[in-house]
């Protein structure tokens, strides 16, 4: 099915030009308001290797990286090599350009799927001017990188579904491969299912889809295979046991009892005891045989002195943690299910609340847009009415955090109405694909709803089972995809309604 752009002549460029102009103006105002990319945070991030390794031994560091997929560290390393004294500006420039590309990709996706250009423009504009989107562009973590790549993936998939060319298939699967190399949530299994869906729903191009998919799935397996050879773990990240273990607390009486009996050795230390105690614990309990490279041997980074989460000591601890998690799943699974419910609630909190989890550079950035974000929350996040302390958390940096005495109702009051409605619309759209008659006039929209819906569901399930704490950040990553699916669904309802009305009139 070949579909050309519905716009011709000058109208083809009007809305993209407007989006570009508004985007540049808004980001210029953000810079004028004092927002900056905090490169110093990179030194402390668990996900980032020692700056000295990234700057002077990038390829060796990436070879020995096992705690994370490599692309995020590779980009930081390239920025360090390109402009070591201006790394923040280099990375910020890249993220801002990616933000612009994401906005244009959302608009182009909707227009190619035959929504009116004004509607596509409005949706892209709302996503682009969301204060959270601006904050994430200035944030040092890889959230903006994932968000932008997912928007580009949606556009590339749309082009392939409509045009069936190998070029667009390679573009889409290349972006999918890149996502598996950025964040561990996007496993090769996710990419393989995406390929299978393309193969099934585009029967005319099955041979092309199958051959190309095998190449990209094979490439996505190279990183876990490298980890298998070097570290005996077939995984894109060796941190999974740590992430799952966070659902149980060392202070829990049942956990503490088993830890005292020696059944849970990795729960003999609590993060509340501080970084120095953790380093000593790793040194005395989990010290591994040295391999002669600091990215594996050192417990701390030479630049900044933060813990080196890529050390072999951490790997040994995570291996033991996997056994502890297995024991707890058999004997005490309740905290996992309880935390999963709590994670879903966190998933639907305002995406800006990620910046307030700890009073660091991110919270300082948030305070510069606090009034705008507060106003947006009153519009989008008042499902049960805002709790009285909802925005007491954009307090001055030198003011202590208030104690949390949230009632059950106040916890529900923190939910984001806009996020819940958008997610429910996307899930309803995904369920509706079973009714072929509803989508028969727009088969490409149906296929795109399935493809994008698969990614939204994957992220929702995986992150809420594994993560607890920053879940609202993961919802932001798929927010544009959910908006596209919801828009397609509502447009299809509108066209079906008018089609029935016209048929009755005739």
Give structural notes:
- The protein is mostly helical and 506 residues long.
- It has 3 domains: 11-229, no CATH class; 232-332, no CATH class; 344-413, no CATH class.
- It has 27 helices and no strands.
- Helix 9 runs antiparallel to helix 25 (443-466) and helix 23 (417-432) crosses helix 27 (479-505).
- The longest helix has 27 residues, at 479-505.
- The two termini are 30 Å apart.
Question: SSE string, helix = H, strand = E?
Answer: HHHHHHHHHHHHHHHHHHHHHHHHHHH
| Low-confidence regions | none
Rough outline: globular
Derived from helix and strand composition plus strand pairing, the structural class reads mainly alpha
Task: Tell me how many strands there are.
Answer: 0
Rounded to an integer in angstroms, the radius of gyration calculated over CA atoms is 24 Å
Transmembrane segments: 86-106, 118-136, 142-163, 175-202, 208-225, 415-434, 446-466
Protein name: Glycosyltransferase RgtA/B/C/D-like domain-containing protein
Keywords: Membrane, Transmembrane, Transmembrane helix
Organism: Terriglobus saanensis (strain ATCC BAA-1853 / DSM 23119 / SP1PR4)
């Amino acid at each position: 099915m070949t579909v050309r752009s519905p716009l011709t002549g000058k109208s083809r460029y009007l809305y993209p030009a407007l989006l570009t102009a508004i985007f540049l103006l808004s980001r210029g105002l953000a810079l004028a308001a004092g927002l900056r990319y905090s490169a110093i945070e990179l030194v402390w991030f668990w996900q980032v290797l020692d700056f000295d390794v990234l700057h002077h031994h990038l390829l060796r560091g990436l070879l020995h990286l096992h705690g994370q997929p490599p692309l995020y560290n590779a980009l930081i390393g390239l920025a360090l090599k390109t402009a070591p004294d201006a790394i923040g500006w280099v990375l910020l420039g890249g993220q801002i350009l990616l933000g612009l590309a994401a906005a244009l990709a959302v608009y182009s996706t909707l227009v190619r799927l035959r929504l009116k250009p004004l509607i596509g423009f409005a949706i892209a504009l709302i996503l682009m001017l969301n204060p959270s989107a601006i904050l994430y562009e200035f944030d040092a973590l890889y959230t903006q990188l994932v968000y932008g790549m997912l928007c580009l993936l949606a556009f590339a998939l749309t082009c392939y579904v409509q045009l069936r060319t190998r070029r667009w298939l390679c573009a889409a699967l290349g972006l999918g491969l890149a996502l598996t190399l950025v964040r561990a949530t996007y496993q090769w299994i996710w990419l393989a299912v995406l390929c299978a869906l393309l193969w099934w729903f585009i029967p005319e191009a099955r041979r092309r889809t199958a051959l190309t998919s095998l190449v990209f799935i094979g490439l996505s397996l190279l990183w876990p295979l490298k980890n298998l050879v070097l570290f005996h773990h077939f995984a894109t990240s060796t941190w999974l046991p740590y992430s799952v273990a966070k659902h149980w607390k060392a202070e829990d009486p049942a956990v503490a009892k088993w830890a005292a009996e020696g059944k849970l050795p990795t729960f003999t230390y609590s993060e509340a005891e501080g970084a120095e105690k953790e380093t000593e614990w790793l040194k005395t309990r989990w010290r591994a045989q040295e391999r002669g490279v600091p990215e594996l041997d050192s417990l701390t980074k030479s630049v900044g002195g933060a813990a080196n989460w890529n050390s072999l000591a951490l790997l040994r601890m995570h291996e033991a943690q996997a056994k502890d998690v297995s024991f707890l799943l058999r004997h005490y699974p309740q905290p996992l299910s309880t935390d999963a419910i709590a994670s879903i609630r966190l998933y639907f909190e305002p995406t800006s609340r990620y910046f307030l989890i700890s009073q660091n550079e991110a919270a300082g950035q948030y305070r510069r847009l606090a009034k705008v974000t507060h106003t947006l929350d009153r519009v989008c996040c008042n499902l049960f009415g805002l709790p009285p302390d909802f925005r007491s958390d954009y307090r001055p940096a030198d003011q202590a955090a208030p104690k949390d005495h949230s009632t059950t109702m106040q916890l529900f009051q923190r939910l984001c109405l806009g996020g819940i409605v958008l997610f429910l619309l996307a899930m309803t759209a995904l369920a509706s694909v079973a009714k072929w008659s509803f989508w028969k006039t727009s088969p490409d929209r149906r296929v795109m709803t399935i493809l994008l819906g698969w990614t939204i569901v994957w992220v929702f399930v995986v992150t809420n089972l594994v993560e607890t704490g920053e879940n609202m950040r993961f919802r932001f990553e798929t927010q544009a995809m959910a908006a596209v699916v919801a828009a397609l669904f509502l447009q299809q309802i509108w066209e079906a309604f008018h089609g029935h009305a016209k048929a009755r009139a005739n």
